[in-house]
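Saturday, quiet lab. Running sequence design on the structure tokens for the scaffold JK sent over.
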């Protein structure tokens, strides 16, 4: 597996094939990415009341404190994810999404692992996230737990919300 730098394009093999996945910094306004993000926002509004939807739209994902990546296989968009700097020691995972038809092929794990590498390279001590509490989010919870995320209370500007699950991961810098 090639991991030159978390800011370079990265290669990760898919689980169900030998075709490579490529992860690269991308523009959230790119047509196929924008469509995936719109699907994400629609889905979040279907699953949670408006005041409990914390997914970011394209304009907010272009904020200078956010780095946005896509994962592709032979040019086909398989997913996306972003890392928001909360402060110099704490980052937040945002906008993790794979298209419904492309789930369970390793793209979500690949982008999550990429974000973890980037968080380490930035020197973060903690990485956190907010996701939904509905049954539809259980696969996401399992993915995050599989790499060590644990439930926590609200962080940053978040408030306690029955429709939200907050998770955090303490990052070790000696690895």
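Result came back. Writing it out in full:
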């Amino acid at each position: 597996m090639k991991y030159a730098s978390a800011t370079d394009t990265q290669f990760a093999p898919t689980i169900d094939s030998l075709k490579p996945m490529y992860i690269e910094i991308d523009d959230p306004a790119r047509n196929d990415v924008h469509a995936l993000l719109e699907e994400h926002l629609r889905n979040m509004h279907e699953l949670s009341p408006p005041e409990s939807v914390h997914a970011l739209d394209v304009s907010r994902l272009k904020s200078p404190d956010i780095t946005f990546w896509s994962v592709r296989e032979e040019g086909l968009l398989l997913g996306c994810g972003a890392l928001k700097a909360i402060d110099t020691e704490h980052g937040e995972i945002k906008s993790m999404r794979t298209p419904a038809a492309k789930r369970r092929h390793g793209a979500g794990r690949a982008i999550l692992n990429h974000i973890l590498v980037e968080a380490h390279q930035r020197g973060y001590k903690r990485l956190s996230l907010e996701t939904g509490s509905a049954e539809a989010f259980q696969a996401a919870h399992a993915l995050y737990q599989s790499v060590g995320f644990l439930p926590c209370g609200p962080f940053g500007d978040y408030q306690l919300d029955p429709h939200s699950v907050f998770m955090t991961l303490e990052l070790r810098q000696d690895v």
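Notes for JK: Residues 1-9 have pLDDT under 50 and may be disordered. The longest strand covers residues 76-87. Ask whether to fix the surface positions before the next round.
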